[in-house]
């Protein structure tokens, strides 16, 4: 894990794996166990992305109210460096980020609440990422911040130029963006 400052709202979950000669089994989500831990979310949409090339970068994305999303992210093939950034105006950690390697091998998941930007870069070929969302995709609420904003200073660990969508290439800088989330209102 790499982070200038730990973000206590971001949780790294590692579901148990049970293995034998055939391989392994893991329960990747259980609503009752999450509720026992005080983590109550109504997941309404599952997303699945595939990236063929290493250094494919997706982010930094958010969805503003009234369709803001909590996300539970995992990598099911290959590996990613997953990033969450505090995007809540007034937060003492505004603009700070955390990065965690998620891979099919380590089985880790990142729980990212509303009010945080999310993005990832692929570390391997043929990477698949799956994540649960607490609200449906709403294009009118879709937003992004530039992945390489110098005010964020995210160390993506890139050794070459990333593969980007046009949306991510031209996303606004943090200082130019609206502030749809406020500390204390979310997360």
Concise synopsis of the structure shown:
This protein is mainly β and 187 residues long. It is built from two helices and twelve strands, in the order E-E-E-H-E-E-E-E-E-E-E-E-E-H. It has a five-stranded antiparallel β-sheet with strand order 1-9-6-11-4, with no helix packed on it.
Sum up the overall morphology in one term.
globular
**Residues in helices, as a percent range:** under 10%
The CATH architecture would be: Sandwich
CATH T-level fold name: Jelly Rolls
Q: How many H/I helical runs?
A: 2
Low-confidence stretches: 1-5
The first-level CATH class is given as Mainly Beta
Q: What is the mean predicted local confidence, pLDDT?
A: 93
N→C terminal distance? 21 Å
Q: Which strand order do you get reading across the main beta sheet?
A: 1-9-6-11-4
Number of separate domains: 1
| CATH homologous superfamily label | Jelly Rolls
Query: What is the quaternary state of this protein?
Result: single chain
Q: Pairing-aware structural class of the strands and helices?
A: mainly beta
Q: Please provide the count of β strands.
A: 12
Order of H and E elements = EEEHEEEEEEEEEH
Rg, please? 16 Å
Q: Main β-sheet: number of strands, strand sense, barrel status? A: 5 strands, antiparallel
Q: What percent strand?
A: 35-45%
Question: Your description of this structure?
Answer:
The protein is mainly β and 187 residues long. It has one domain: Jelly Rolls, CATH 2.60.120.10. The chain has helices at 31-36, 166-169; strands at residues 11-13, 17-20, 23-26, 45-51, 57-63, 71-77, 79-86, 97-103, 109-112, 116-122, 127-133, 142-144. Strands 1-9-6-11-4 form a five-stranded antiparallel sheet, with no helix packed on it.
């Amino acid at each position: 894990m790499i982070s200038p400052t730990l973000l206590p709202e971001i949780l790294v979950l590692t579901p148990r794996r049970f293995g034998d000669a055939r391989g392994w089994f893991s329960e990747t989500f259980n609503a009752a166990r999450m509720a026992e831990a005080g983590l109550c979310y109504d997941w309404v949409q599952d997303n699945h992305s595939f990236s063929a090339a290493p250094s494919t970068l997706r982010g930094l994305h958010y969805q503003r109210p009234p369709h803001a999303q909590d996300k539970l992210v995992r990598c099911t093939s290959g590996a990613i460096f997953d990033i969450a950034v505090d995007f809540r105006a007034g937060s003492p950690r505004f603009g700070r980020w955390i990065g965690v390697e998620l891979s099919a091998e380590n089985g880790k998941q990142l729980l990212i609440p509303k009010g945080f930007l999310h993005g990832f870069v692929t570390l391997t070929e043929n990477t698949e990422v799956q994540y649960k969302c607490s609200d449906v995709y709403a294009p009118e609420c879709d937003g992004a911040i530039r992945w390489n904003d110098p005010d964020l200073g995210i160390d993506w660990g890139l050794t070459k130029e990333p593969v980007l969508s046009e949306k991510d290439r031209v996303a606004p800088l943090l200082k130019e963006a609206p502030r749809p989330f406020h500390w204390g209102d979310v997360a």
